[in-house]
Amino acid sequence: MRGIYAVIILLLALMIPAQHLMISAQCQQTATAWTVSGFDLDNSAKYNKALNTALDFYNQQRFDEAINAYDTAIRLDPNSTQTWQAWNGKGDALYGLGKFDDAVLAYDKAIELWPDNAIPWAYKSDALKALGRINDSEAAYARAKELGFGGFTWRPSTITLNGRPMAEPDHNLTASINEGLKLDKQGRHEEAIKVYNSAIKMDPYNTDIWKAWSGKADALNALGLTEEAKAAYAAAEEMRSLANTSISATPNAGPLSHILDHSMASAVDESANIPTTRAYKFTNADKKAYSWLNLANVAAGKALWYWYSPDGNLYHTGSSDIPPNPGGDYWTSYNIWYYIDIADIPDQPYMSGKWNVNVYLVGPTYVTQLTEQFDLDNGLVPQKISSILDHCTASSMDEAARIPIGRTDKFFLATDSKIYSWISLADVGPASFYWYWYSPDGSSYRVGPIDIPPNPSGGYWPTYNLWASIDARTLYGETWNLELPSDEFHVDVIRNDRQILTEYFTID
To answer: Domain range spanning residue 204?
Structure first.
């Protein structure tokens, strides 16, 4: 329902570099190119932009706007594991509005996408407690602790400026759009553009924001700014298309099943498109690992495969088109598959173990997800569980030795220009890390990804040290002007989309 920013704004979004190890793979090919407007799993810039905007609104307690942005993030990638963040954030915003039943449903969806993630279990516990469901709340929190949750849930408190509550912004999106239309009809096109820009900034993911983009495009066109008008029209169309897409946190909501049968396989008759050897255990003696599906009641569309290795990294992606039925109706039965070459998988211990394959069936009005698991035994010791040997915050680093020099959790603007978060790991393979820095004024900053590369000697790194830093004054922000204690600064360390550490510190 809510739109997204235009392409020119997306250029400013934080990009997640591809971690894919691209390998040669074959799949069924068709001559039919097909996309879903506004839905591109590979374009993480849009997802990150919506997620970061939602977080900004949430920290300002602008919960309705936060929900708009979280919904957009969800629509862009509805069934990916990483979308748990958007569902969990939506649950937080609903909780902030006092809609505790809806918050529980959103947390449940986050848990459905990543059952072993402690965070949504902990926040679900809060919502259940608010509903008076004490036993359920305690059970949810116990589950969070089982999964490693050892901190506390955080929700924004009322922020004051010089002892007074900060004023809520006085705005009305519909009134702003109507004002822009009025100015444009009067020939005051430049003034209309300013009004439309204010409306877009006001609530960028509102379900009606496409009208502001469309009005801006008309005004630009009237001024002869053709290229700018085309970009605004494209943004309006993209957001209007998203406005026609519905989502639901209800566990049983969604399309009818389109998957009649599915399996992993070590061999497929590629002319008949049927598996000849179904298998969920593979070794180096197998040439290929296939993911195969038998579909029913599907229109022209696309299937996308996301292959995850045992160390949690995204190893490879692929896709295959579903062509239109020549009969002009839905396919009553359609077989589709994709494979990876086992010989191309690096001969490393962290590639031995349980693999996951997320398959997304994307049609004109539905997205269906299937997750397959299989075991690969390459003859090496399976993946170990890496451990944290040491960690700290620090005021300086010896970057050549990769160790902190000034360990501290107390920083001073007069003497400390940077704040470092450092971590030392044991028995670790390739992975991606992000640092999320939070200040008491509601600001948040992301640093990353910072990647651990494959060990050139093979196997795991016995030890590996890595860190991230942030400018102390940037993080301090407007905290000096707020009646908040300085010890509310903290940084979360995320490995492969999972939080592994939180550090707390002060700035004076």
So the answer is: 173-243
